[in-house]
Amino acid sequence: MTITDFKALHQRLQAEHLARHGTRLAERQEDSFELTLYAVEGFYAETWRSRGEEPLLFIHVFQKPAGLGDYLRLVQLPGNL
Hints:
Elements: H1 3-8, H2 11-21, E1 23-30, E2 33-40, E3 43-50, E4 56-62, H3 69-72
Antiparallel strand pairs: 1-2, 2-3, 3-4
């Protein structure tokens, strides 16, 4: 599925596609939100939820690696590289 096809889906179908085909990469918090980053077939998707709540507020999709900047601080590499 292309990023354009994904964007055209209803949010519920986007979430289902992420659950089936996405690879969960990282989680982080920003203000009162919980964000989860997924890699999906050539693009990234970031789900946003209010902290402590289940309903999905929205899904942000992007392709450029610059969108990963907020997640880089979460990456931990082994000390013996």
